[in-house]
Specification:
Blueprint lengths: L6 E5 L5 H17 L3 E4 L19 E4 L4 H9 L4 E3 L11 E4 L1 H14 L5 E4 L5 H15 L5 E4 L11 H8 L3 H9 L5 E5 L2 H13 L8 E6 L3 H6 L5 E4 L2 H16 L9 E4 L3 E3 L12 H13 L6 H8 L3 H11 L4 H19 L4 H7 L5 H12 L3 H9 L1
Parallel strand pairs: 1-2, 1-3, 3-4, 5-11, 6-7, 6-8, 8-9, 9-10
Antiparallel strand pairs: 10-12
Helix pairs in contact: 1-9, 3-4, 6-7, 10-11, 13-16
């Protein structure tokens, strides 16, 4: 008789990029450690526990667990359970979440490199992931001697409200957001708790004549490609590593189905991948217009193989003068900023495309693939090929 395949139920929404990314990671890992017999259906985030699960004969469950009630129902079924929402710790259920502190660092460092000195956060108060991201953003920037101004309107009648209902209610807050934004110093770097919230901020700015990104640069979280592209202007966002979350959750469930007992209260924090830059953050906020002009020139021509002399010619300044300005405003040299932006382009192309190293080198302004590999290894302690292969594991 053939061996019985482990039967695993997946209670994960397929309606959003985040959930689909987790499902893809689970499927990838199941092919490595399985095969598994996977049970899933199209669902929203807050669909609850499906009726069919109560009589289902299976071996394990991976779910986006919304609250203690749902956690209790799943535990009573008697199967090992792994949570990939991370709203709160549930006794007896290990969980995974996108690391809020790492999200905050990525966003803050991006804005700081662009020269911003004023920062804001817009989210949904009393929604766990939003509160965590707000606190992490404020804490990290406090360490850089900057204050974060927070707009987080209270959510009325929280029970049994859920994030999608809260997001829908957020549509009515756009006037309040714009009124609040008009009182803030500019240029302002704003992190929204997720892409839906980021879209609402952009709508508020557009409806009430606040210029994006010149006056307010806006970044979301989750990198929902379709939603970000529908925004006007297109929304920059932080890409979570949902594939890794799905793979690690599946690997843990496999060990649990074999008898392993995870540490009580285990909450695994998965760092995000990167900032995906779009037009909503395409701004340089230095108070010094010469430095801002130089940074814009580098961004526009970073793939053209430019050198320091080209930047000097582009802004009409001496090397001594411009180097001093870069040291003051960016804490780096002109050459270092050129290289940083080239390597940023390389990492984006490695993650988003199947281009060869020679093609990537050409698009990022490197003289050759060997030159790219040498500098890449110096900065990332890995070759571009190794870096790309790690993304696919």
């Amino acid at each position: 008789m053939p061996a019985k395949l482990p039967r695993v139920a997946l209670l994960i929404e397929s309606s959003r990029t985040y959930g689909r990314g987790i499902l893809a990671g689970i499927a990838r890992q199941a092919h490595v450690i399985g095969p598994w017999s996977l049970f899933a259906q199209e669902r929203e985030l807050h669909s609850g526990v499906p009726a069919w699960l109560r009589s289902w004969k299976g071996d394990g469950i991976i779910a986006r667990i919304e609250d203690q009630r749902m956690a209790s129902v799943l535990l009573r079924l008697g199967h090992p359970v792994v949570d990939v929402l991370g709203n709160a710790p549930f006794m007896g259920i290990p969980a995974f979440d996108t690391d809020a502190s790492a999200v905050a660092r990525l966003a803050a460092d991006f804005f700081l490199r662009a020269g911003f000195r004023h920062f804001a956060f817009v989210g949904y108060r009393n929604i766990p992931f939003s509160d965590r991201r707000a606190a992490a953003f404020a804490d990290y920037l406090a360490g850089q001697q900057h204050k974060v101004r927070v707009f987080s309107a209270p959510v009325p009648n929280l029970q049994p409200a859920h994030i999608q209902a809260v997001e829908q209610s957020g549509l009515s807050r756009e006037h309040a957001i714009s009124t609040w934004l008009r009182k803030q110093p500019r240029p302002l770097a704003l992190l929204a708790c997720n892409d839906v919230c980021g879209q609402q901020v952009l709508n508020a700015c557009r409806e009430y004549a606040i210029k994006v990104p010149e006056e307010v640069a806006v970044m979301g979280v989750d990198n929902d490609d379709l939603l970000c592209s529908l925004c006007a202007p297109p929304l920059s966002s932080i890409a979570p590593d949902t594939d890794r979350m799905g793979r690690e959750a599946a690997a843990l469930l496999d060990r649990m189905m074999r008898g392993e007992r995870p540490k009580p209260g285990l909450m695994v924090q998965i760092p995000p991948l990167r900032v995906v830059e779009r037009a909503s953050t395409d701004a340089v906020a230095m108070e010094d217009p010469i430095t801002a002009q130089a940074v814009h020139f580098i961004r526009d021509h970073v793939g053209d193989g430019i050198a320091v002399k080209d930047v000097l010619a582009g802004v009409g300044r001496s090397r001594t003068d411009l180097e001093q300005r870069f040291r003051r405003w960016l804490s780096c040299s002109i050459r270092a900023e050129i290289l940083r932006l080239r390597l940023d382009r390389v990492t984006n192309l490695l993650q988003q495309t199947d281009l060869t190293l020679a093609e990537i080198a050409a698009r990022a302004g490197f003289a050759s693939a060997s030159h790219l590999c040498r500098l890449f290894r110096q900065h990332f302690s890995a070759t571009p090929t190794q870096y790309r292969s790690r993304l696919l594991k």
